[in-house]
Structures are given as C-alpha cells and as structure tokens.
From TrEMBL:
InterPro entries associated with the record: Amidohydro-rel, Metal-dep_hydrolase_composite, Metal_Hydrolase, MTA/SAH_deaminase
Amidohydrolase-related domain location: 242-406
Protein name, per record: Amidohydrolase-related domain-containing protein
Region annotation (Disordered) ranges: 210-241
Pfam family, one: Amidohydro_1
Annotated keywords: Hydrolase
Secretion signal, residue range per the UniProt entry: none
C-alpha cells in the first residue's frame, strides 16, 4: 500500500483490549508487526523524534484488533439453505443438514468463499472445523491465522478400536503440513492442524471426546439419578453406557475424566453447562466459544452468558457455519450475546467491552495464538498487525463500545492482516485513500 517503512493508523477510538480504550488513538505498524500503540499525538511525536517517516491513515470510526471467530465450519458456506428455517433440536437439524451435505459440494471453493466472508467482516483468525480434506487449506490460503481442526464424529468404542483410530490417523497423516516460513514469507500464519472431536450425548453411538458439545438438558449434572461424584466414568466406557447404567455424569465431567480438557482445548456452544460444569472448565482453563445464533436456528436454549461473565469463565465467540447461522459476521454474534446477557440480568457497564474482548483476545487465547512471535487478538507492541476498522459513530468510550457491540454487524470498514490491507470498503478508501 505504501513504500514508507511505517504506517500510522489513527482512529477516533482505538480498542487495544489489553489496555484501556483510547479516544483519538493510533497504532504504528512496521512490516507485519505493531510498533507503537497510544494516543495519536504521542505516537506521532515519538516517531517524529526518531526521524521515522510515516504514512498516515486516519479513520473517524473505531479500530479494534482483528476479530477471532472461535468456531466455524467454512466448508459449509454453500449450505445456507439449511439455515433458512429453525429446528427443534440437533436431531431435527441434522435431518435438514444431511441431504444437503450428501448432495456433494466443492468443499475447497466453498471454504474459500467462507474465508473471504470472514476477511470482509473484520475477522483475521478462526478455529475452522474441517470434515472433508479439500477444505483444509482455506484458512492458510486466505492468509488468516488460526487452527484447522479435523473432525472426528460418531464412532462407537468398538468401531474406534477396530479401525477408527487407524482411519483418523491416516487422514491426519495425509493432510497438509505446516508451510515452511522461509519459502512463503507472506504466509507465516501460525497454522497447525489439530484434531476435533464432536460429541453428541443424545446419540446412542457417542464417541470418545469432544471440543463440540450439544449436550441435552437431561445430560446435565444438575439432575443425576445418582450423585455425580459417584458417577465418574471408569476406563473407556462410553458415556451412553454410563447413562444407561444410571450414572448422571455430565458430558463435561466425562471428558474431564478422559483428560481432554485443558487450556489447549476449547468447547463450542457450551449451552447446557451447569454451575459445576462451568467450574470444571474454569479449573482446566478451557474456553467456551459461544454461538448463540446457531443455537437459535438449531432450536437449543440460550447459553448461560451472564453466568459465564459473572463467574469469570474464559469465553470466546463463534458463528458456527452458514448451515446453522445467518452470517459469518462475528459482530452479529456479539449483538445477540449483548441481548442475551441483559435478558439474563447482566447489567454491568463493562458488558460491551467484555464481549468485544471475547470476540478478539478470547478466541486467540482459546487457540493459543495470543502467545509467541505471531501473537494476535490484541493491540500491543510486538503483536501481529491484525486490525479491524468499524464504521460506527464515536462519542464517549462506553457509548461507542456499546454501539459497536450492538450495531457493528455489517459495519466492518477495513481489515488489515499482518500489516497488509486485505479488505477495504468504498467509504474507507474514500476517507483514507487506502485500498486493499
Ligand atoms: Zn459447529
């Protein structure tokens, strides 16, 4: 975009996330990293004192870290017809999903289209669930940070022992490996390939473990037929067998005893989590990626947003896929979380800032990409220059953040990834002269 070594992005309000919001703030970017963050006048002065020539891009709206979508399936971007109605639970939704899935799709092209939607709405990193290998490259090809998770689903313990493990390991072995940074300097994404287990407690053939749970209310530890402390899984017994034997173990308790939970694992949806389940997740440092619009279309209840916030549980935000969500715009999800938290009685002034933190740093932390040389999810010196600009009016800090959280949906003006402009709206280009 410029031949200057440093670009100064200033905005009427800058939300660093790991520092207080700054009215009339600025961020200096050199290469793919953040060089300086602070009040615009201070950043400008300190660069001038060092004799650093600067290309200045000023935006009269809000500048935040790039959004982090902590749960999506980009390959289902061509399946939006499934989400054109609402359902009565997961088993009902899957009967709408399966025939459309089985029709066959160009999973690679659909995932690429989904990745483009993320970038166009201010998202710079994602946790992408991959079911078909053609979709595995999408994050990387779009220059997005994040993790592609390989989905493992619906195995019985017997089939898993007989051939499931071998099949999954073969699929992982044939999947793409981390690109060598030296041969692809513009694609130095913290790109890993992880396993994802989907766990359906309502299914008789529930497999071993999970990062994605649709636990039904009956599975909650709040209504055990025996005391939960005595309902601990033993060995490799399937959860369904434990249930049939009368143990009231929750899905969370179950996977905890399998050693699945931890800071390197995150749970998607987290709708039916009892107080005890939430305490387990906090103790393990396991983040929950909330996807309330998907929950609504599938016909589930609202997640306990206010409780997660009050208890200080680590949370992130995900859209899920277009097969159960109206858009891949993470701000649409933040808007819905604002509404639910208020309905559930959360009335703190900090609601918008906390949910915007969940939609950025919360997701980065869930994937471990808030650390290391390519750290992202917040605006601080040395972090990756992943930036999102929003077209919302700036007044006071609290009022502006509330406006952004409630009306940021559809108002992403520009997206910078690793210091490069990857999306700019006409209004952004008109005002700043900058274009992707
Ligand atoms: Zn999902």
């Amino acid at each position: 975009m410029t031949s200057f070594p440093v670009t100064l992005y200033s905005a009427a309000l800058v939300l660093p996330v790991t520092a207080p919001p700054i009215l009339d703030g600025a961020i200096a970017v050199r290469g793919e990293k953040i060089l300086h963050v602070g009040e615009r006048a201070w950043v400008e002065r300190s660069l001038a004192e060092r004799g650093v020539p600067v290309h200045h891009v000023h935006w009269d709206g809000v500048l935040t870290p790039g959004l982090v979508n902590a749960h999506t399936h980009l390959q289902y971007t061509g399946m939006a017809e499934v989400a054109h109605r609402t359902y009565q639970g997961f088993e009902d939704w899957i009967t709408g999903f399966n025939p459309v899935y089985q029709r066959g799709h160009d999973w690679g092209a659909d995932a690429a289209a989904g990745a483009a939607m993320l970038v166009a709405t201010g998202t710079t990193a994602a946790a992408d669930i991959v079911t078909d290998p053609e979709a595995a490259h999408a994050l990387h090809d779009a220059g997005l940070s994040g993790i592609a998770y390989w989905e493992v689903m619906d195995w019985t313990n017997a089939d898993w022992s007989a051939h499931g493990r071998a099949e999954v390991e073969a699929a992982l072995d044939s999947s793409p490996t981390v690109p060598a940074p030296a041969s692809a300097p513009t694609r130095r994404t913290p790109w890993r390939f992880n396993r994802c287990w989907r766990f359906r407690t309502s299914s008789a053939s529930a497999a071993a473990a999970s990062t994605s749970t649709w636990a039904s209310p009956a599975s909650s530890a709040s209504s055990p037929t025996r005391p939960a402390s005595r309902g601990r899984p033993r060995g490799s017994a399937a959860l369904s067998s434990l249930r049939q034997a009368g143990f009231g173990t929750s899905a969370t308790d179950y996977v905890d005893h399998l050693g699945v939970l931890g800071p390197d694992c995150h749970v998607a949806h987290g709708v039916y989590m009892s107080e005890r389940d939430r305490a387990i997740l906090r103790a393990r440092g396991t983040t929950v990626a909330l996807c309330p619009r998907s929950n609504h279309i599938i016909g589930l209840d609202n997640p306990p947003v206010a409780a997660y916030l009050r208890e200080g549980s680590p949370i992130a935000v995900g859209t899920d896929s277009l097969s159960s969500s109206p858009s891949l715009d993470l701000m649409g999800e933040v808007k819905e979380l604002m509404r639910i938290a208020r309905v559930q009685g959360y009335s703190g002034d900090d609601l918008a800032e906390r949910l915007l933190t969940a939609a950025t740093l919360g997701g980065a932390h869930a994937m471990g990409i808030d650390e290391g040389p390519h750290r992202t999810g917040y605006l601080a010196v040395g972090a990756r220059a992943d930036l999102a600009f929003f077209d919302v009016p700036v007044t006071t800090i609290t009022e502006t953040l509330t406006t952004l959280a409630e009306a940021g949906d559809g108002h992403a003006a520009a997206t910078i990834m690793g210091g490069r402009a990857r999306h700019t709206s006409a209004r952004f280009t008109e005002q700043t002269g900058a274009a992707a």
